[in-house]
Amino acid sequence: MKKKIVVNGVLLLAIILVLTLPTFATEKAVMMATTTSTDNTGLLDYLAPHFTKATGIDLKWTSVGTGKALKMGENCDVDVLLVHAPPAEKAYVENGFGINRREIMYNDFVIIGPERDPAGIKGKDVVTALDAIRDKGTVFASRGDDSGTNKKEISLWKATGKAVPEREKWYVQSGQGMLSTINIAAERNGYTMTDRGTYIKYADNMNGNPPLKVLVEGDKILLNQYSVLTINPERCKKAKIDQATAFSDWMAGDDAQGLIKDFKLLGKPLFVPNAK
Predict the structure, then answer these.
(1) In Å, what is the CA distance from 43 to each residue of 197, 264, 271?
(2) Domain 107-222 classification at class level
(3) Would you give the DSSP letter of residue 82?
(4) Strand, helix or coil for residue 150
């Protein structure tokens, strides 16, 4: 009888260990919602091993448009956000959903299109370029997904002083990520707006000779700022605030900022670090 009790005790201990190991593992992970550009460019695959080595925390993420990422945080589905829509982010913090918003890096938005440039927008400022596309009725592919890029694009159409052309036949809303939207624009010999990092990735996929070229760039209004936001633990009791803070601190630190600076394709940086 005594031997049987010992065996059962060992078995019970083994069962307890098996049942608790997954829980322990998840405690060493942080879940992030992020924009498609940080994923599609390969930046997160590049950074994640370095973060884990430095902190012992696994980084897991889902890539969606910024609007959906913010909603995931609001619903307490993730611990931390890496997004790029400053006005929406600031409102998010003001409404109590997020805390500790930290600017981490930036690139810029560009308008790309066929080299023959049927609307004649090359070298023009962004408002003039959008007016020209509207006047010509040339295909413009929009993400149409409430992403950070889509939010910026909508604001630029509004800056022309005219309505967003959502019902025009030439205005195509993909409802998809940036790379897919670029491909739709290319297939239809049209234009689109993209962040530069994703464009460089697209050009790299095309062996450095993409069918769509950068035609409009350089306006201050095209700045594309990325920030980390920690989910407010007072609203989301299960949010892993320690792990989220560790990620935020690491992204703002010298090591991660140096890695972001060194991340290049075709010899070009995809993002510029600017944590303060």
Answers:
(1) 10, 9, 9
(2) alpha beta
(3) E
(4) helix
Q: Which residue has the tokens 């090591």?
A: 255
Which H/E stretch holds residue 231? strand 223-231
Name the token pair of 195. 């962040």
Lookup: tokens for 261:
């600076």
Q: Which residue has the tokens 């049942």?
A: 19
Record the pTM.
0.87
Q: Which CATH architecture has domain 2-106+225-273?
A: 3-Layer(aba) Sandwich (3.40)
Question: Which residue spans of the chain are classified as CATH 3.40.190.10?
Answer: 2-106+225-273, 107-222
276 residues of the chain, pLDDT tens digit each: 333 333 344 444 444 434 444 433 446 899 999 999 999 999 999 999 999 999 999 999 999 999 999 999 999 999 999 999 999 999 999 999 999 999 999 999 999 999 999 999 999 999 999 999 999 999 999 999 999 999 999 999 999 999 999 999 999 999 999 999 999 999 999 999 999 999 999 999 999 999 999 999 999 999 999 999 999 999 999 999 999 999 999 999 999 999 999 999 999 999 999 998
Q: How far is residue 51 from each of residues 30, 105, 204, 251, measured CA to CA in Å?
A: 11, 16, 26, 8
